[in-house]
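Re: Re: token formats

Sure, here are both.
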Amino acid sequence: MSSTVCIIASIAVYLIGMLAIGAHYSKGNNSSDDFYLGGRKLGPIVTAMSTEASDMSAYLLMGVPGLAFFCGVAEAGWTAIGLALGTWLNWLIVARRLRRYSAAVGAITVPDFLARRFHDDSHLIETLGALVVVVFFVPYTASAFVACGKLFHSMFGVSYLPAMLLSAFVIVAYTTAGGFMAASVTSLIQSLVMTFALIVVLLFGIRTAGGWGAVVENAKEIPGYLSLFRSSNILDGAVGSFGFIPIVSTLAWGLGYFGMPHVLIHFMAVKKDSMLPLSRRIASIWVVLSLGVAVVIGIVGFGMAKAGAIELFSNSSAAESMIVRTAALMSENGLFLAIIAGLILAGILAATMSTADAQLLAAASAVTQNLLCGVFGLKLTEKKNLLIARIAVLAIAVVAVFFALNPESSIFRVVSFAWAGFGAAFGPVMLFALFWRRCNRQGALSGMLAGGVTIFLWKYLVRPLGGAWDIYELLPAFIVSSLVIVIVSLLTAEPSKEITAEFDAV
């Protein structure tokens, strides 16, 4: 009983701290620019860590370890490699140009930037971009709420629904109050809590499994479990080839970064573009280490199951609660470890919240800035704009809650689909907008549409065919979108001299 009290107290302190930060930064939101971009005042460390914390959602502490636990190293490992490469490249080639260009044209959202980049007076790019943001962020945010509900249900036996609703309330409360600065500062804190959770779980797990040697020996009992080139699972021990197509397919996760609105807005919000190289180094190192540890934790978890410390999960979705089970086990070993267990669970909440708050802001900005103000031309005072922005955050959260009512949803699978949607719809057009002078409005609009449509067609019509067609939908959709942008841009009129002059100046 005392261990449960310690865990609840640790989590309560953490949640209260998040709400306090939201209340503090609510005083500094005097305009939509403040609410959505923090007035472009982020320093290099906050930029780096808040960006990566907003990216590394619950799949870092639940999805990746769960997949590695059940299926071994291959899929989780290549996904982690792809994400690490994508992170580094995004910081290297996109961050500085986007910061300069978005500031030059006065853009505060991704659809807004694309519309201003191509001088789209028809508002078609802004409309399509806003719809993409809302459509894919709702399930993405819902996956965060699912993670919170699973956490409390697994740990305390609390009914899933009220646990999920309470978590959603806290996230919405501090995001609505404090806006982007609250989300960024809390994300910095959350990244530190996540790091702490990963390290402690790894060390405790190795000790509980009987040492590193025991972990490796248990893993070797499953054919292909430790191989990057073999597929397996812990139930039937069947081994298959993890060859060129699945490797390329999982590496393609890295392409998604070029189109993630909740990541890109952090580039736009940094105080000076000269700060970005330092941010890139910090972010890249943290991502490599955290993803690597997450994969290893999955393998260690299997060793713990073989030692009888935790159950042997029957599928990868169930295995996503592995760290929760580990925290529960830790809490049974004295008061101090019970407090540590509470901090680990707070780390899972941190991973979830740091992504959900950024997603809610991005989705709300799409509704208010891009649709209401940009497309429909509503003229609002800053006070009314802020009010509508906060209402939009609440409304989108309510929709996400309905999507999160099913506790059986796989966090990893839901995130992978939303990730593909953003990567294909925004990734290619963002790269061409920043690096290709000849790219025009027609090409950009066609590419966004082609990428988004291909995601659905490949996911539900082509990929089920299996074999060579079983490729992560992001890769073919990214290629299709890129080809469409190039072909349509070359077949239609060149951009105006005003647009090309602006491109050259930036």
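Second one below.
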Amino acid sequence: MKENARSSLSGAAFWFLRRLYGLKGWQLENTAPPIKKFIIVGAPHTSNWDFVFFAGATRMLGIRPSFIGKHTLFKWPMTRFMYDMGGMPVDRAQPGGYVTSVVDAFAAADEMALVIAPEGSRTSNGEWRTGFYRIAVGARVPIVPAWVNHETLRGGLGEPIMPSGDYKTDLAKIAAFYRSKMPDCERFAVLEGVANE
């Protein structure tokens, strides 16, 4: 009975997020990639509305998104809810850190679309943390760049990019995609600069 209640709660949460997504008037470009395992990198991360957009957009595309969460967030009474929402508990104190844990989770899953905000915080200057790339290389899964423009209420997904192992070269491809979508975004200019250093 309690498990059903928690499952219903997660369903209601996704319904609410999709409702907000629709009420805001977001417009989505592109379709879901025809692959079963991949990492979605979302940028720029400038608003709390980002989560609403990505939750709504992924569901509209038929993608069941996953996200990384601190393992302590998965304790009762939130355990079932966190898992139902797509949460993946990681313990950063374990040997190998969270990267190893997530790579193992990819290996064990038949399907997984992991959403990561590589900027780390809304106050980022545009430089990205490299965890998303190390996970992609370790799990041998492609990176799908996702963008959101709060001024135009538009967003979407790019083509999957399979990591080559050369971080700067692959980052340049990712930066070029983002610059094509939002050429005036200063964060993406910074990202392009880091890729070309």
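The chain has one domain: 2-195. The first helix runs from residue 2 to 24.
- S.
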